[in-house]
Design goal:
single chain; alpha+beta; Arc Repressor Mutant, subunit A; Alpha-Beta Plaits; 3 domains; four-stranded antiparallel beta sheet
Length: 244
Amino acid sequence: MGRAHEVRAASMAKTAAIKSKVNAKHSTAIYVAAKGGIPDPDSNTVLKSAIEKARKDNVPVDVINRAIEKSKGGTVEAYNSVRYEGFGPNNSLFIIDCLTDNVNRTYTSVKTAFAKSGGNLGENGTVTYMFGNFSIFEFEGYSVDEIMETLLEADCDIIDVTKEDGMVEVLAEPTEYGKVRDTLYAKYKDMKFERDENVWIPNHYVELTTENDIKNFNKLMDTLDDLEDVQTMYYNVSNSREEE
């Protein structure tokens, strides 16, 4: 069938593998959220958020539904939330959040990813103190004053509410995530979040200037992204990954 067919087949296989990993990551997050509370997104804020994030990544409905149904079963799969802190090229900083049923496997995989990219894992607390932890919400269609009034009336501990290019951003303490989200949903039934999550924001950024540093950074990001246990990565590199 020729070289063109082989290239297309390889590309399709790679795309399918990527989709499979994305689906698996979201399926685990949905299962854990449902198992840890009520398996109903209308009554479980964490589950609702996990489902919305899965939909944004085009995870099929049947994958989402299977994860929820699985959580209703009697068998419990023990997943642990683990966080790793590490140092990448040019002393860049990384926070890696994982969900895993085998901590030893995940630790080894993450440690190897850093080692092969010229970095190393640090002890707990060696990186997080150089980041701020916040709840962040982004959505369209409302004014800053309206949102501010709604949240203050509900006694939510918010840091700031801003608006840029039609997008409202609410920044709050991480402990206020559920309260802010529930308050907004109770007041605005049709509100759709473009973003709603607890995040780590670096206090300062570094720029990678050498070809080798950029190459190692991209290698580290790709390797971590390929690990099924890795859910979220935070880092303080300002360069775009396309600059390789």
